[in-house]
Write a structure and sequence with these properties.
Layout: E1 2-6, H1 13-25, E2 29-33, H2 34-40, E3 46-48, E4 57-64, H3 66-76, E5 83-87, H4 102-110, E6 115-119, E7 122-128, E8 131-137, E9 140-145, E10 152-158, E11 161-168, E12 170-174, H5 182-185, E13 197-203, E14 213-216, E15 221-226, E16 231-235, E17 238-243, E18 248-253, E19 258-262, H6 268-275
Parallel strand pairs: 1-2, 1-4, 2-3, 4-5
Antiparallel strand pairs: 6-19, 7-8, 7-18, 9-12, 9-16, 10-11, 10-15, 12-13, 13-14, 15-18, 16-17
Length: about 280
């Protein structure tokens, strides 16, 4: 099987060496993008320029924190390839195993002794005049002001019908996975990732209606920039484009979810408790 290793920090080097060695010893071919390979420094990696150069991928191993997992999902561009996360970051909310368990996890994956978990992803399409651009968001699409001390005006449409115009620092359109990311810091609700839903959370709204909305996953969300101020669009923490007044962005549930390798059945509330250090009282 062709396996892509994703990771570009020095902390990932030792784990990447072990992963590549295990894969080669068991007859598989490990690949890495050139930018990652130069950091990881593993001789047995086949260096590629783009993910498509790896041919028919069967697995992605993400070695790092949650940012690495987000990047791994983005690199796949909707391909139905599962991602195994190895946590060498801080929180590691999306990762499945710690470095000490990586060989066991690989052995179980190739033996078919794992569960593949599906997570909703947003298709985000921005229209500016006749031009369009698109992205995939596992956590959120963030619409935010460009300058301190100002607010922006963003009109929310749901299934083509105007809902309201927010005057705020911005708006987040998030997935259930993203409900424990940026949206959580904006006091949005925590949603189990097993739900199919779209979450709308305003950022510091300057208006009486300041609540989050939880929509069905089959409801289309459109954000229109109104007023005179530009708005920055960020996808999963990566700056995407600066939107101008009149620009519109559609966010909808993708037919191509993200897939994660799970060794055991995960009870969301227990994972939440562990990762956030919640105590019994």
């Amino acid at each position: 099987m062709n396996v892509l290793i994703v990771g570009n920090s020095e902390r990932a080097e030792e784990v990447a060496t072990r992963v590549a060695t295990w894969l080669v010893d068991h007859g598989h071919r490990p690949f890495a993008l050139a930018s990652d390979a130069s950091t990881l420094g593993v001789d047995s990696l086949h260096t590629i320029v783009s993910v498509g150069d790896a041919g028919d991928l069967g697995l992605v191993v993400g070695i790092g924190g949650d940012g690495t997992m987000l990047r791994a999902v983005a690199l796949l561009e909707g391909a139905r390839v599962p991602v195994l996360g190895v946590n060498v970051g801080l929180l590691g909310y999306l990762a499945e195993v710690e470095p000490t368990g990586v060989e066991t996890a690989l052995a179980r994956f190739f033996a078919g002794d794992v569960h593949i978990e599906s997570r909703l992803v947003l298709d985000v399409v921005a229209a500016s005049g006749s031009a369009t651009r698109s992205w995939r968001a596992l956590n959120e699409a963030s619409f935010e002001k460009q300058h301190a001390g100002q607010t922006v005006r963003l009109r929310l449409h749901i299934d083509g019908a105007p809902f309201t115009t927010y005057q705020a620092d911005g708006i987040l359109v998030a997935t259930p996975t993203g409900s424990t990311a940026y949206s959580l810091s904006a006091r949005g609700p925590v949603i189990s990732p097993e739900h199919d839903a779209i979450l709308i959370t305003p950022l510091a709204p300057h208006m009486l209606f300041d609540r989050s909305l939880v929509l069905r996953s089959d409801e289309s969300v459109e954000i229109e920039v109104v007023g005179q101020r530009p708005v920055g669009l960020t996808i999963d923490g990566q700056e995407a484009v600066v939107l101008q007044p009149g620009d519109r962005v559609t966010c909808s549930a993708s037919p191509h979810p993200a897939l994660f390798v799970r060794l055991e059945s995960r009870r969301f509330h227990q994972v939440l408790k562990t990762k956030f250090g919640l105590a019994d009282r």
